[in-house]
């Protein structure tokens, strides 16, 4: 009896983790610098004659251009190389013999040369791939070598394009600075040492539009599972019996949503929320009063900026004899503190503070 050969079963492998390539080509010279991940070109120039412009070249790849936009914004950062005495000044940017639109930013100051952010800065726009020429001259009689770093504004993860993945990465780096664990240099579009609203707006200027342009709009609601199940009161926002409530929002896809503190100072320096491809975002803040006003500022890919306030009535706090309502004691005189067990660090950092030590017997877990 013939023996049938055993069928070989091909081995199975776990999928490898995808690694994102930096915009700057591997092995490219860095001239002793540590360029951020959104750097697409790093060049060495030399101003050999006083006040005369010298040129370096950067290449815009097709992948760098944002689909659906007529132009994409890029950054130029120039500083002396090594011990060079040049005081670099960005003169302009050209492509195919034509001047590109340029917005000039900071100027290099030799008296502040110890600061990593001290460099000449400009931003240009182009809608075409190919080489661009960056013109730099020494201020006054200064001459010498300089470095030119060209970046793709908003490319936080360094994959050479700007899309929802960059928005997700940006949200984790919001309001951070060098030295913070969450700081990402590529999210700091103007390299001034702080990631704030200006950086969010810059990212949105290059964000891929996921829908046609529309007017400013946003819908905000308490998540159905967290909503108050009793008779609704007169309230333009939502109601809940929970101390920690989930708030869902829906707006233009690709928007960044900034969150204000409940003090209503409107500086929106707390948290940045990314939206997904359908425009949804969510947050779970901590209620601290009967009526809690949550303020959201939406920055969309079409240049709109608008604020929406969403009040949440916390029924557990508002009901008679609530253990969460402050009552003066000999130990805690005055007002403004919340009684009940501390929340144990839950919630979104920077949105609400529970206000110091707490007293009383109320609990906050699950309510």
Overview of the molecule:
- The chain folds into two domains: 39-206, Sandwich (Jelly Rolls); 218-318, Immunoglobulin-like (Sandwich), CATH 2.60.40.10.
- The protein has three helices and 17 strands.
- The chain has helices at 164-173, 197-206, 315-318; strands at 39-47, 54-60, 72-80, 88-95, 98-99, 102-104, 120-126, 130-138, 144-152, 218-222, 238-240, 247-251, 256-259, 271-274, 280-283, 291-299, 305-314.
- The strands form four sheets. Strands 1-9-3-7-6 form a five-stranded antiparallel beta sheet, with no helix packed on it. A five-stranded mixed beta sheet has the order 11-17-16-13-14.
- The radius of gyration is 27 Å and the shape is elongated.
- The termini are far apart.
- The model is unreliable at 5-21 and 332-367 (pLDDT under 50).
């Amino acid at each position: 009896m013939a023996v049938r050969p055993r069928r070989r079963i091909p081995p199975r492998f776990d999928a490898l983790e995808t690694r994102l390539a930096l915009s700057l080509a591997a092995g490219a010279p860095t001239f002793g610098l540590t360029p951020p991940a959104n750097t697409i070109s790093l060049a060495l120039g030399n101003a050999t004659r006083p006040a005369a412009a010298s040129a370096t070249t950067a290449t815009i790849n097709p992948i760098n251009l944002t689909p659906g936009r007529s132009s994409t914004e890029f950054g130029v950062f120039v500083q002396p190389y090594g011990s060079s005495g040049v005081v670099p000044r960005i003169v302009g940017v050209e492509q195919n013999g034509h001047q590109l639109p340029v917005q000039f930013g900071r100027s290099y100051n030799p008296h502040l040369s110890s600061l990593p952010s001290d460099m000449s800065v400009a931003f240009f726009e182009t809608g075409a791939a190919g080489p661009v020429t960056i013109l730099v001259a020494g201020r006054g009689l200064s001459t010498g070598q300089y470095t030119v770093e060209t970046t793709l504004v908003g490319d936080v993860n360094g994959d050479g394009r700007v899309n929802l993945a960059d928005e997700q990465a940006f949200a984790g780096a919001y309001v951070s600075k060098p030295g913070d664990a969450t700081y990402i240099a590529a999210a700091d579009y103007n390299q001034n040492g702080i990631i704030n609203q200006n950086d969010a707006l810059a990212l949105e200027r290059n964000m891929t539009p996921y829908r046609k342009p529309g007017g400013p709009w946003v819908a905000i609601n308490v998540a159905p599972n967290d909503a108050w199940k009793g008779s609704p009161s007169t309230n333009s926002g939502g109601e809940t019996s929970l101390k920690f409530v989930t708030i869902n929002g829906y707006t233009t896809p690709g928007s960044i949503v900034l969150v204000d503190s409940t003090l209503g100072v409107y500086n929106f320096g707390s948290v940045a929320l990314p939206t997904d491809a359908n425009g949804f975002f969510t947050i779970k803040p901590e209620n601290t009063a009967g009526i809690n006003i949550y303020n959201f500022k939406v920055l969309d890919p079409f240049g709109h900026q608008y604020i929406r306030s969403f009040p949440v009535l916390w029924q557990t706090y508002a009901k008679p004899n609530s253990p969460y309502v402050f009552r003066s004691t000999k130990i805690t005189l005055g007002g403004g503190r919340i009684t009940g067990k501390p929340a144990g660090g839950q919630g979104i950092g920077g949105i609400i503070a529970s206000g110091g030590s707490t007293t009383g017997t109320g609990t906050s877990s699950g309510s």
